[in-house]
Amino acid sequence: MNETSPPEQTLRHRFPLLWRADATDPEFRKDLERTDREFGSKWRRHKADRLAELQRHEDQLALAVARDEIAATRPVIDLLGLLAHAPGSLLAAVATTPIDAETAETVFRLSTIRLSPAVSVADHDLDEVLDDLSSLHPDDLGEALLREAIYAVGPPIPNSRLAKRFEITRQSVSERRRRLEDRLIELGKRRSLASLRDHLEGRMQHQATGPVLPPSDPFAGIARLDNEGSFPDVIDAVQAGLWLASRIPLDSRPPGFRRLPDDSLGIR
After folding, report:
1. How buried is 205 (Cβ within 10 angstroms: 0-12 exposed, 13-18 middle, 19+ buried)?
2. Is 231 exposed, middle or buried (0-12, 13-18, 19+ CB in 10 A)?
3. What phi and psi, each to the nearest 5 degrees, are found at residue 266?
4. Residue 172 belongs to what H/E stretch?
5. Which of 81, 92, 199, 209 is most buried by its number of CB atoms within 10 A?
6. 210: Cβ–Cβ under 8 A, 6 or more apart, which residues?
7. Pairing of β 265-267 and β 210-213
């Protein structure tokens, strides 16, 4: 039984990038449609020079692809550099229960690494979120309002107590609180905080009483930490993101989350 030989491949299989490129010269494309034998017949004594020219263009395209890939993964490489302090391996860091701002920051930054459809850093990059929160520029009263009343995980401190602490009227505290809430809602429309809100919503379990962040979720652990560092820090970021995520329906003022008996976080 005679076996037929497989058809000879054209040069486009040898130069795939050049073949796929929209800007490839039409004369090059004609050569790429030829088999090696047809190509040799066309160029005869100049075959080696013509092949070298095709290879040079293929290499230039490959270099451009490599540069694009490096540029795309650079944010992830830079982020991993920031995680040099992570405990042990990255796997150990992922399994770490946040116990302070340092471990909380490690968990947060690791959560922003995306592997699909390509390696990248998500929009809720911690530095971007902190930059947005920094634009609030709160004074001592504003910081107390944010951390102890607006997005506090737990019973919010009454306006009367803050009025007494800062020796101003309760009405003044109420007005400042409402203005800060409005500004935070506006900030929530920015890419970084909107991405963080969506990320936190995706981690929640939806129950009859509303969304709940499970007690074992590392972001619940971050939100439960005492907020003692300078404003803003990673705890502010998570608590602010949760506060924005509690806005149900979307045209309402966010009520915030509270700590439930099992250490999960539920709507106030």
Report:
1. exposed
2. middle
3. -130, 165
4. helix 170-187
5. 199
6. 248, 266, 267
7. antiparallel
* Cα separation, 27 vs 227, whole angstroms: 67
For the record, the structure tokens of 216 come out as 């074992």
Query: Phi-psi bin for 92: left (phi > 0), alpha (psi -120 to 50), beta?
Result: alpha
Specify the 3-state DSSP secondary structure of 186. helix
Instruction: Quote the pTM value.
Output: 0.70
Q: Percentage helix, strand, coil, to 5, in the chain?
A: 60, 5, 35
Q: Using the structure block, give the residue that is written with the tokens 């939806």.
A: 206
* Sequence letter at residue 88: G
* Burial of residue 214 (number of CB atoms within 10 Å: 0-12, 13-18, 19+): middle
Tokens of 106: 């490690």
Structure tokens at 104: 């909380």
Tokens of 172: 């003044």
Tell me how far the alpha carbon of residue 26 is from its chain's centroid: 42
